[in-house]
TrEMBL record:
<dbReference type="GO" id="GO:0008743">
    <property type="term" value="F:L-threonine 3-dehydrogenase activity"/>
</dbReference>
<dbReference type="InterPro" id="IPR001509">
    <property type="entry name" value="Epimerase_deHydtase"/>
</dbReference>
<dbReference type="InterPro" id="IPR036291">
    <property type="entry name" value="NAD(P)-bd_dom_sf"/>
</dbReference>
<dbReference type="GO" id="GO:0006567">
    <property type="term" value="P:L-threonine catabolic process"/>
</dbReference>
<dbReference type="InterPro" id="IPR051225">
    <property type="entry name" value="NAD(P)_epim/dehydratase"/>
</dbReference>
<dbReference type="Pfam" id="PF01370">
    <property type="entry name" value="Epimerase"/>
</dbReference>
<feature type="domain" description="NAD-dependent epimerase/dehydratase">
    <location>
        <begin position="2"/>
        <end position="227"/>
    </location>
</feature>
<protein>
    <submittedName>
        <fullName>NAD-dependent epimerase</fullName>
    </submittedName>
</protein>
<comment type="similarity">
    <text>Belongs to the NAD(P)-dependent epimerase/dehydratase family.</text>
</comment>
Length: 313
């Protein structure tokens, strides 16, 4: 059975729905530190787990006979800069707990998300390669870089079957993101429908690698279902679909909402975004476990506006 830690979050919630669809409701246990997503809490087996409390994870693993854990709980880039040591503690302690459960053979398989935040200002910005200089300047990025090193170490030394993806910014409509730098690309659709305007906290030319949630979920399921011998990289895989700037997403919205007005007021998150790549080379994921994305910006905008309109009626 599968346990999702952080199931109430932006990615965790959609992973829960998808994995329940694939494996059956009773085979996927959702958990989070509180009941802050009633859609998830009321849609199947839900447990309260503090990702920093080894015992609470182990109790749940034994109670439900869990063999696979998706660790989706973390403090993201923007919030992490407000609470650096909290971000370090949460992101690292939770990872060690899950890796140690696998090392002790309580579970068989682990998914752990990394991020393009592992890259920093000294990383090549266009088509950033899988192997390159990585000097992250956010605490979040540091936890992801170090976390990747530990995932590879536990695989090498203790044969732990941990798999990971360096997610780009992820765009979705079901659950709001929490505390990320790429969150503007989600907020903008809500504001476009509610107020026909949006004040963006990044400047108009800030290109960032992005991915629609359906593609991100597909990649996560695919990497976890791949044969172990296909997963040659045990740190984390580069992954992306598209890249765009706030200006480009505004233009794509104006095709549907002609009077949509975009304004720019960069805040502290501009410096974080400027430290990240503009586009990613994900050749290894494409070659080693057949990754490919489906949604381009036009398709994302169409889907986001359609789905949000339907939920806001
Ligand atoms: C963030 N959405 O903004 C996350 C993600 C690459 C961005 O790591 O922090």
């Amino acid at each position: 059975k599968i346990l999702i830690i952080g199931a109430c979050g932006q990615i965790g919630s959609e992973l829960t729905y998808k994995l329940r669809e694939i494996h059956g409701d009773d085979n996927v246990i959702a958990s989070d530190i509180s009941y802050n997503n009633l859609g998830i809490v009321n849609s199947g087996i839900f447990e309260i787990i503090d990702a920093m409390d080894y015992k609470s994870i182990l109790v749940c693993v034994e109670k439900h006979k869990i063999d696979t854990i998706y660790l989706m709980a973390a403090m993201l880039s923007a919030t992490g800069e407000k609470y650096p040591m909290k971000a370090w503690d949460l992101n690292m302690t939770s990872l060690f707990h899950v890796l140690d459960l696998a090392k002790a053979k309580f579970i068989k398989k682990v998914f752990w998300p990394s991020s393009i935040a592992v890259f920093g200002p000294s990383t090549p910005k266009e088509n950033t390669p899988q192997y390159t200089t990585m000097e992250p300047t956010t605490v979040y990025g540091i936890t992801k870089q170090v976390g990747e090193r530990w995932c590879e170490y536990y695989n090498e030394k203790y044969d732990v079957d941990v798999r990971s993806i360096r997610y780009p910014g992820i765009i979705s409509w079901k659950t709001l993101p929490g505390g990320g730098t790429t969150d503007y690309a989600v907020e903008i659709y809500h504001k476009a429908l509610e107020e026909s305007k949006y004040e963006c906290f990044l400047s108009e030319k800030t290109a960032l690698p992005m991915l629609f949630m359906d593609d991100a979920i597909k990649a996560t399921v695919d990497i976890m279902e791949a044969k172990p011998e296909a997963i040659k990289i045990r740190s984390s895989y580069n992954l992306s679909g598209i890249s765009f700037t706030p200006e480009e997403i505004a233009l794509s919205i104006q095709k549907h909402i002609p009077d949509f007005k975009m304004s720019y007021n960069p805040d502290f998150r501009q410096k974080i975004a400027d430290s990240w790549p503009k586009s990613i080379d994900d050749t290894q994921a494409r070659e080693q476990w057949n990754w490919k994305h489906s949604f381009d910006l036009e398709a994302i905008t169409k889907e986001m506006l359609t789905q949000l309109k339907a939920t806001k009626k």
